């Protein structure tokens, strides 16, 4: 049966998340905004993040079956919407950690689950996780046959592997020989990898680091299947500490237009060794990463809803209280009301798409491709609506919304990234949807039953 009502437990989760947002996150922006650089602002969020960890929001990124407290993907979307509306940067620490753990959750062995999930299940400390995939030259076409492939590469050299680039023709043979991995080279760097450097530039508690096997560090062989060459390494802070000084370097923390206290550093790996036991899903690395990004697509939609909702609530309050020196509150003006209606329609339809996608994943509605399509639709639609919805509310409020001491500039800047990150809508997400539609077996309505 189709339904959109939250359970009593989900209502309590929403109310509790809203309370936590108000109590913990509301004061944060005033504190970290006083700093002029991204790094300092990121560091200033540490005590607030630790409070979210203690409150169980990081543990909630892990399914209950693996020791976490996440009972459903929709619960995650509810929390994301509530808290993202309050502070996007700090919630990106949390949700970026969820994305960073997703490859391990999806593709890890029981032994790897026990070893690598442990720091995220205690509700203590400040553990960050990262899906370390993006690179300075972009990764939209990282699995395109004949393309250059990932720049961060790995090759065998004695008892370890050295990152430089190319491909492998027999992945299983290589893994059998594997003793260590080594990441290397001046121009082999990662960028936009949320949380990957940790709090002190010495690495996150866990990074799922994506590499391409190559003997010479060059472009992939045009005849090879790029997916067969992808290797995912499970990198911890202990891994970093056990390497030579300079093997792992945080080069810079770029200043961002929005999410001004989030971390997406540029990092470099030089002869960086990772034990053989810490290889994730040998032979299936690309598939695991693709699945992780499909799940994150729907949650990016929930983030978009949170930003739109915050803008709507601020504009609604203004419209009810301010007359702009007229005889009635602004909300009684037809043009102003229409702007609110436009924004509200964007928000409600976006939320429905997110919940539908995640409900389908949980219940197994349709087939794998239809569930994947629903997640893509949620990401594309919600993120495309975010800037328009915030702009609708700003037009209602007028020039006052242009002041930096109002909510609107922050929300507009944050909203601008949604169609660009987590797989840009034009270069990645719409192309993924396009490929689904090009398949001869494509069933447009499979997600409905």
TrEMBL record:
The name this protein carries in UniProt is: Acyl-CoA dehydrogenase
Cofactor(s) the record lists:
FAD
What are the residue boundaries of the Acyl-CoA dehydrogenase/oxidase C-terminal domain, all occurrences included? 283-435
Methyltransferase as a keyword of this entry, yes or no, is no
Q: Which GO terms describe its biological process?
A: butyrate catabolic process; fatty acid beta-oxidation using acyl-CoA dehydrogenase
GO: which molecular function terms?
acyl-CoA dehydrogenase activity; flavin adenine dinucleotide binding
Q: Which InterPro entries match?
A: Acyl-CoA_Oxase/DH_mid-dom_sf, AcylCo_DH-like_C, AcylCo_DH/oxidase_C, AcylCoA_DH/ox_N, AcylCoA_DH/ox_N_sf, AcylCoA_DH/oxidase_NM_dom_sf
Taxonomic superkingdom? Eukaryota
Instruction: Supply the Gene3D superfamilies for this chain.
Output: Acyl-CoA dehydrogenase/oxidase, N-terminal domain, Butyryl-CoA Dehydrogenase, subunit A, domain 2, Butyryl-CoA Dehydrogenase, subunit A, domain 3
Give the UniProt keywords, A-Z. Answer: FAD, Flavoprotein
**Similarity comment text for this entry:** Belongs to the acyl-CoA dehydrogenase family.
Domain annotation Acyl-CoA dehydrogenase/oxidase N-terminal: ranges: 7-122
In Pfam terms, one family for this protein is Acyl-CoA_dh_1
Q: What is the lineage of its organism?
A: Eukaryota, Fungi, Dikarya, Ascomycota, Pezizomycotina
């Amino acid at each position: 049966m189709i339904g959109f009502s939250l359970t009593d437990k989900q209502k309590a989760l929403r109310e509790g998340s809203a309370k936590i947002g108000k109590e913990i996150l509301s004061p944060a922006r005033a504190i970290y905004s006083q700093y002029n650089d991204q790094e300092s602002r990121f560091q200033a969020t540490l005590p607030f993040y630790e409070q979210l960890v203690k409150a169980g929001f990081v543990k909630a990124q892990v399914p209950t079956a693996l020791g976490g407290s996440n009972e459903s993907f929709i619960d995650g979307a509810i929390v994301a919407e509530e808290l993202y509306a309050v502070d996007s940067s700090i919630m990106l620490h949390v949700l970026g950690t969820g994305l960073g753990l997703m490859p391990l959750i999806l593709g890890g062995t029981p032994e790897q689950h026990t070893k690598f999930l442990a720091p995220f299940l205690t509700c203590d400390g400040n553990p960050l996780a990262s899906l370390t995939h993006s690179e300075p030259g972009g990764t939209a076409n990282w699995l395109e046959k004949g393309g250059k492939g990932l720049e961060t590469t790995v090759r065998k050299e004695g008892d370890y592997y050295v990152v430089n680039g190319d491909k492998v023709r027999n992945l299983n043979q290589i893994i059998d020989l594997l003793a260590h991995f080594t990441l290397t080279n001046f121009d082999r760097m990662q960028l936009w990898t949320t949380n990957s450097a940790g709090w002190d530039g010495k690495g996150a508690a866990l990074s799922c680091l994506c590499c391409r096997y190559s003997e010479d560090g060059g472009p992939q062989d045009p005849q090879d299947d790029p997916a067969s060459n992808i290797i995912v390494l499970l990198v911890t802070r202990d891994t970093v500490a056990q390497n030579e000084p300079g093997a792992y370097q945080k080069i810079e923390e770029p200043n961002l237009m929005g999410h001004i206290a989030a971390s997406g550093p540029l990092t470099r790996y030089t002869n960086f060794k990772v034990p053989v036991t810490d290889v994730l899903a040998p032979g299936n690395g690309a598939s695991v990463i693709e699945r992780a990004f499909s799940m994150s697509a729907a949650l990016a939609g929930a983030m978009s809803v949170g930003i739109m909702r915050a803008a709507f609530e601020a504009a609604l309050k203004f419209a009810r209280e301010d007359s702009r020196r007229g005889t009635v509150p602004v909300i009684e003006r037809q043009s102003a009301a229409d702007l609110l209606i436009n924004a509200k329609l964007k928000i409600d339809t976006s939320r429905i798409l997110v919940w539908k996608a995640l409900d389908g994943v949980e219940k197994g509605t349709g087939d794998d491709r239809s569930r994947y399509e629903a997640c893509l639709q949620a990401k594309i639609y919600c993120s495309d609506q975010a800037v328009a919805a915030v702009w609708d509310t700003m037009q209602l409020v007028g020039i006052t919304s242009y002041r930096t001491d109002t909510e609107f500039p922050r929300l507009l800047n944050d909203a601008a990234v949604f169609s660009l990150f987590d797989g840009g809508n034009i270069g990645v997400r719409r192309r993924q949807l396009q490929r689904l539609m090009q398949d001869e077996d494509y069933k447009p309505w499979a997600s409905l039953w």
